[in-house]
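[job 0417] fold request received: Transcriptional regulator WhiB
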Amino acid sequence: MSAPACRNADPALFFPAYGVPLSDLQIRAAKELCAACPVRQECLAIAVRSDESDGIWGGTTPIERRRMRVQLARMDQGAELARAVVSGEGPQVLQGLRPAVVHHLFAMGWNAERIGAALQLAPGEIQAARAMAARSLAFLAFMERHCPKSWS
Ligand code: SF4
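[job 0417] inference complete; emitting structure tokens
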């Protein structure tokens, strides 16, 4: 195992005192250390998976990790909603869930025309949703590589 770059760093750099927000300076300095850390990817994946809500982990702030968790959760929710679309339930698909739903509908064999008609989306919107879903899928793959779901 490689040694983490923060092994000799002041913990206060990564974890502020209780109730004190991280300063921009602190965040920048911690992120610089993380950027050169040989275990950064594992550190980030574990922190996201275990919902670490404090401090800097893997070069990310709590808010950044929360966004990543939302991204993961949306892919799961999207699968459920896509099944509801396929079964004709006509669920409401909020914009944030659109990429995941579009992705899952394609995965279920629907084409762009059918998806557009079901979700009332223009071809450009479907394309944009697919591009966003591709980013989420890349992040899902990153998570599975560095901290598989089966570990949690
Ligand atoms: S990536 Fe994780 S282990 Fe590495 S320096 Fe940052 S907080 Fe420490």
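[job 0417] notes: The chain has two domains: 11-64, 65-151. The chain is about 60% helix and 0% strand.
[job 0417] exit 0
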